[in-house]
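Record format v2
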Amino acid sequence: MKLSLLFFITGLVLVLLQTTFLHLLPLGPVVPDLILVLCVYWGLYHPTLGAVLGSFALGYSVDVVSSPILGLNAFAMSLVFLAVYLSSRNIWIQSPMVSAVVVFLASLIKSLALIVVWLVFLNSEGVVLGALKYLVLEALVAAVVAPFLFAFLRRGQIYLESAAAAAQ
Amino acid sequence: MLAFVRKNQILIASCLCVLLSLYIMSAASRGRLRGDPVGPVLLWLLRPLQIAAQATTASVKEIQRSFGTAARYRAENERLKQRILELEAERSRLLEAEATNRRLKELLEFRSQLPARSITATIVANSATTWFESCLIDKGSADGIRKGMAVVTPLGVVGQVVAVSARSAKVLLITDPNSGVDVLVQRSRARGIVSGSLGNGTVMKYVKRSEDVQEGDRLVTSGLDGVFPKGLLVGTVVNVRKHNLGLFQHIEVAPAVDSARSEEVLVVGSAEGS
């Protein structure tokens, strides 16, 4: 329960950060995708039904706040969670570098999924070139922040899990 | 069946979420999504937080902007300081050029009063030791400078050329103990030799006790030594002492020309070999 609360608050804070403070960073139009990092973390370390719904809800909240069409980010985040979950059995993260690489690849998957869906449902001309321009940059930025967010979440999760175990 | 679902619940749920989001997208893009019950709730939940965060963001942006402005002002300040330095340097150069021009004009006027053979030179170095009072000028034998020529300025006598190379010449100043200039007291016409004396300044030697010499008297070249043209100012008497013993007076002289402050000089007179 406490863990779910931690993730809920973290998700809320990340949505807030992503829609406000992170725009202050001198990265041009690129905003670090912390929500993606959280979804990847869930896929790797906390693959539960709540995490599935959380990924969808986070994507959906981004859609509500800033997407031109509902479901776009919900789809991308759900897809990212699914991809990470499926491959999590083959990934053993021992160093922050590996987590950065996983997030980098997940970001690429998310961007490509968005481009495909965008083309199918919105059919905006020139969107591919525009998206490709920031695809790698966005993935790199997410990869850079991933180890820090991973460390924070991992520490919180271990603390709460060990506290729950001690209580039992 | 239930066991399969339970075993793969995450996978199935994920797939369902993907499909659900695809359905939402499809419906939204076709305009069939009439009511969105979740969106308004989410927005209602996020709104106050976002307002607060946005206010903080605006403050941070303001601070960033202030820093940016301060940085711009700093850069502008630095640029202006640099400009002031450049202008100061330019002003200094112009003042220097003006002063040089004035000095050269005076030198030119003075030159017209001297014998025809005179060469303008610049002092390029001063004496390197305290034992000798000399300086180096930038003209040498290639320019017509010869050993023994007199070196003067409009203010008075500087010294005498004692060594010459092709492009420079060494001048022994009248303040050097080894120099000697035949002089006259302008007022009383008393004769003597002005020379340097190590540690005691410049003195006028060989003036009889009976001669009339007073403080403030001007000393001019007599022209009898064959080196310096007649009538050039050498210095001013600053102290006269008559000892109980001895034939001569002790006369201290303030040279008319401070070689350390001189820059341009004229090399004049007939010299050996010329």
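The two ends of chain B are 130 Å apart (CA to CA).
Chain B has three helices and twelve strands.
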